[in-house]
Amino acid sequence: MDKLIIRGGNRLSGTIPISGAKNSALTLIPCALLTEEPLTLRNLPRLADIDGFQHLMNQFGVTTAVQGSRPEDFGRVMTLEAPRITSNVAPYDLVRKMRASILVLGPLLARTGEATVSLPGGCAIGNRPIDLHLKVLEAFGAEIELAAGYVKAIAPEGGLPGGEYDFPVVSVGATENALMAAVLAKGTSKLFNAAREPEIVDLCKLLVAMGAEIEGIGSSDLAIHGVKRLHGATYRVMADRIEAGSYACAAAITGGDVLLEGARADEMGATLHALRNIGIDVTEEKTGVRVAANGPLKPANLTTAPYPGLATDMQAQLMSLLTVADGTSVLTETIFENRFMHVPELSRMGADISVSGRTAIVKGVKQLTGAAVMATDLRASMSLAIAALAAEGQSEIRRIYHLDRGYERLEEKLQLVGADIERVGDD
Ligand code: EPZ
Predict the structure, then answer these.
(1) CB–CB of 95/123 below 8 Å?
(2) Fewer CB within 10 Å, N side or C side of the chain?
(3) What is the mean pLDDT of the chain?
(4) Protein residue with its CA nearest to atom 17 in ligand 1
(5) Of the listed ranges 59-68, 123-132, 247-256, the one predicted with least confidence
(6) Substitution candidate for ligand 1 out of 105, 313, 405 with most atoms within 8 A of CB
């Protein structure tokens, strides 16, 4: 297993290229199941989770071809083709490694009339139930069976009729499964209180490019008019707004000035608003978003919420930044029940944080100190890297396979802007 060695204190300056969005790619890839024609996705990030999903798609008989790209390039192009589906079962040993596999349930059901997917189980940040995924598919006319750790969804003879569902809780994944199931349904389906994240808009745009008919894109009320078939498409994955926000925090905590190339300010509203509240200069430029720290960091009170609220995926990274602000900040996590795993590790670097339930009180300290720390989940790992960039001395971050799931060549991108960081084998 590798680890990262970071020597803090360098002021980051320059340009970081932002990759394609992991959380969009993971719902665009299964769309290949919805058509016999080729689907080409551009700007796919090179991430462990994308490799995992490619392998899962091969299980269903989907051919996947990655078009040549130079090793120094970021991102890649993948063409997926599913002229016929040879299996509609997603096995436990693949699903357990990547929860997002549950996103094959809707498209497999829509294409073949049946889908069997291992229950994904929980993860470090929460137990991650999938009840809403199942309820919305039932509302669309599917029969759901749970047995032996698997969920089986069956469409009636002739295909899913479609239906209506009002989400009691906003769910990104359940909205995505619902959209991919409804596009080939017999009738019209309606979703209320659907997720509105930019990744949902990216999915809707791809489905429309494949011939789907969707109304209300970008709003929480969606209407999907089922069509007989979808055709192939070539589509560019949106930029990763969470990767961009993460590097914005890295630039800010080091007093740096960094251009996040390819980032879209209109998709990062709440994060950029939080950064401005903390005293960071944020300017929208032609090629991306520039983040510059001029002066002391101000404390802030932040609460995560479904889009357009502050992304829960940005909470850990912003907390790192606030550990060295001039004053006390309050962060409230409303989406996941256990998303403060970074707190004990940040405390080992000298941060002053106390947690009570879903609220963390962060008292700013003058300086963090480098330490050997352990990554626990994707965004918590990034928060440790951000802290280490500003900490005095050297930090070692272990179990960085968590990072490799969501950040394409992190150390190379940070080296581009002057970070003293290297990846070494961990004995
Ligand atoms: C997606 O997860 C993202 N993952 C997560 O990013 C992100 O944190 C989350 O959306 C919220 O924005 C991908 O897109 C691959 P949800 P998802 O369904 O779809 C509850 C990262 O770091 N819920 O919106 O699983 C759930 O427990 C990852 O990149 C149910 O109760 O999130 C949570 O409290 C982490 N029943 C809330 O809804 C369900 O059936 C939001 O979950 C589904 C969800």
Answers:
(1) no
(2) C
(3) 96
(4) 173
(5) 123-132
(6) 313
Cα 333 to middle of ligand 1, angstroms: 13
Digit-coded pLDDT (tens) for 139-152: 999 999 998 999 99
- Is 115:152 a contact under the CB 8 Å cutoff? yes
Question: How far is residue 59's CA from residue 355's CA, in Å, rounded to a whole number?
Answer: 43
pLDDT of residue 136: 98
Spatial separation of the C-alpha atoms in residues 19 and 45, rounded to whole Å: 6
Amino acid at 79: T
Distance from the CA of 285 to the center of ligand 1, in angstroms?
31
**Strand 301-303 relative to strand 328-332, pairing:** parallel
Residue 53 to residue 58: CA distance in whole angstroms? 9
Give the residue, by CA position, lying nearest to ligand 1 atom 38. 171
Hey, what amino acid is at 425? Answer: G
Residue 166, classed as helix, strand or coil, is: strand
Q: What are the tokens at 73?
A: 């390039």
Atom of ligand 1 nearest to the CA of 23: 14
- Domains in the chain (CATH in brackets) are 2-18+239-425 (3.65.10.10), 22-236 (3.65.10.10)
Least Cα distance to 90 among 117, 66, 63, 115 occurs for 117
Amino acid making up residue 74 = F
Strand ranges for 76-219 from DSSP E = 76-81, 89-90, 114-118, 143-147, 150-154, 164-166, 188-192, 213-215
Substitution candidate for ligand 1 out of 23, 138, 201, 337 with most atoms within 8 A of CB: 23
The span from the CA of 104 to the CA of 88, in Å, is: 9
Pairing mode, strands 164-166 and 188-192 = parallel
pLDDT (tens digit per residue) in 358-385 = 999 999 999 999 999 998 899 999 999 9
Task: State the Cα–Cα distance between residues 181 and 25, nearest whole angstrom.
Answer: 17
Which residue's CA lies nearest to atom 21 of ligand 1? Answer: 313
Structure tokens at 381: 């790992």
**What is the spatial distance between Cα 161 and Cα 228, in angstroms, rounded to a whole number?**
12
204 included as an active-site residue: no
